[in-house]
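Quick review question:
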């Protein structure tokens, strides 16, 4: 069995590549970073170091690498003969990997089994987004794409911090990981990936994950940044930061319980487990990494505006989420292009125009006046 995985970064090597390897797949990493591809090609194995209680080191072997910017023909051939294609490139990059996946699908022999395509990104329905880009790239052959591929959405959860350059291609990760994949598109013939969980309906899982883990983590990052902390564990040890994170997650939990009819006690336990993960002092994670790309994180369906808008539509409380959004506006990290753009937009636009442009919410939405107020008063 062969898997082609786009994005040989933190999640690629430290999570999805590892689980595919453990499932018995030969993994072909595709990436645009030539130095990384050379390093992977030169290695026979790499280690994934799990840190924190019960952490172990796992070794990945049986992989190859293709430079997707330089060797499209080789990549098309790999996709044409693969069983699985996964991505962990970032939600905004999916449109750039779609054309070569379309070409690989069209190059498959018509008798081949259908290719399982799964985007492993922090975004709702990321595989649907990728599939739409692949169909659009295939043009008149879009029907053939759907005959030859099965598209399944996924939710991925493992904190993988930025890596020490001296570690080569080894990766340090937390012990926890969860890969949830929707099963219905496979019609009963799901790929065999023991480390993944297949579920009929992914909606509750991805919203629970994004609106708990990611909302909480990003709140810790932005509040930590505003308070002058550099590391996430250090920020989370600050009582004021932790208090805001806990308040915000009580609001998102109220939404998740109401919307998905989750058991409140189970959601409380899930939230507590996640708070303990943020406190993991063995993870060398920074507020700048976790806060990266603030414009993506403040967009319409993402971890802040997604839950806050739904709460407001239900007439439920949003005060703590709005406070966290206000704190996010203070994220000013020159090394992050979206942070620079965020600060420029704040300087250039009136509060109402800023809210509409960044969050995508129309003026008449019940959340909008609260956001305009927080932008105006910052
Ligand atoms: N790091 C984490 O803790 C988690 C990250 N995620 C999600 O996983 C995805 C990847 O995140 P990370 O691994 O942290 O990022 P990363 O920056 O470590 O890795 C992304 C990789 O994609 C490569 N890439 C960029 N453009 C490409 C292209 N056109 N074709 C092929 N490769 C390309 C980059 O060179 C890089 O190696 C994101 O969607 C993120 O939200 C999800 C859960 C946890
Ligand atoms: O690109 P993003 O959305 O910041 O992804 C990284 C995030 O994913 C998570 O690791 C959770 O799985 C976050 O806690 C982390 O900050």
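Suggested answer, residue by residue:
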């Amino acid at each position: 069995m062969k898997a082609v995985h786009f994005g040989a970064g933190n999640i690629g090597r430290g999570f999805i590549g590892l689980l595919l390897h453990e499932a018995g797949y030969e993994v072909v990493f595709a990436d645009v970073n030539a130095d990384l591809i050379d390093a992977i090609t030169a290695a026979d194995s790499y280690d994934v170091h799990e840190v924190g209680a019960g952490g172990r080191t796992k070794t990945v072997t049986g992989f190859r690498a293709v430079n997707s910017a330089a060797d499209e023909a080789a990549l098309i051939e790999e996709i044409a003969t693969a069983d699985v294609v996964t991505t962990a490139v970032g939600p905004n990059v999916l449109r750039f990997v779609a054309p070569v996946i379309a070409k690989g699908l069209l190059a498959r022999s018509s008798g081949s089994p259908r290719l399982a395509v799964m985007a492993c990104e922090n975004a709702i329905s990321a595989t649907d987004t990728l599939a739409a880009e692949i169909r659009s790239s295939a043009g008149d052959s879009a029907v053939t794409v759907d005959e030859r591929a099965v598209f399944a959405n996924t939710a991925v959860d493992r904190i993988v911090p930025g890596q020490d350059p001296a570690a080569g291609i080894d990766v340090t990760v937390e012990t926890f990981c969860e890969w949830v994949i929707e099963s219905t598109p496979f019609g009963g013939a799901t790929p065999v990936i023991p480390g993944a969980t297949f579920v009929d309906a992914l909606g509750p899982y991805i919203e629970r994950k994004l609106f708990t883990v990611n909302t909480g983590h990003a709140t810790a990052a932005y509040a930590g940044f505003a308070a002058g902390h550099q590391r996430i564990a250090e920020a989370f040890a600050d009582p004021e930061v932790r208090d805001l994170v806990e308040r915000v997650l009580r609001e998102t939990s109220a939404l998740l319980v109401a919307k998905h009819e989750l058991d409140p006690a189970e959601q409380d336990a899930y939230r507590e487990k996640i708070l303990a993960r943020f406190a993991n002092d063995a993870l060398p994670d920074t507020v700048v990494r976790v806060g990266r790309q603030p414009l993506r994180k403040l967009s319409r369906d993402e971890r802040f505006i997604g839950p806050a808008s739904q709460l407001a539509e239900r007439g439920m409380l949003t005060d703590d989420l709005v406070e966290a959004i206000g704190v996010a506006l203070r994220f000013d990290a020159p090394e992050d292009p979206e942070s620079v753009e965020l600060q420029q937009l704040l300087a250039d636009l009136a509060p109402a125009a800023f809210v509409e442009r960044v969050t995508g919410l129309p003026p008449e939405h019940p959340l909008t006046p609260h956001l305009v107020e927080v932008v105006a008063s910052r």
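Why it works: The chain has 17 helices and twelve strands. The mean pLDDT is 97.
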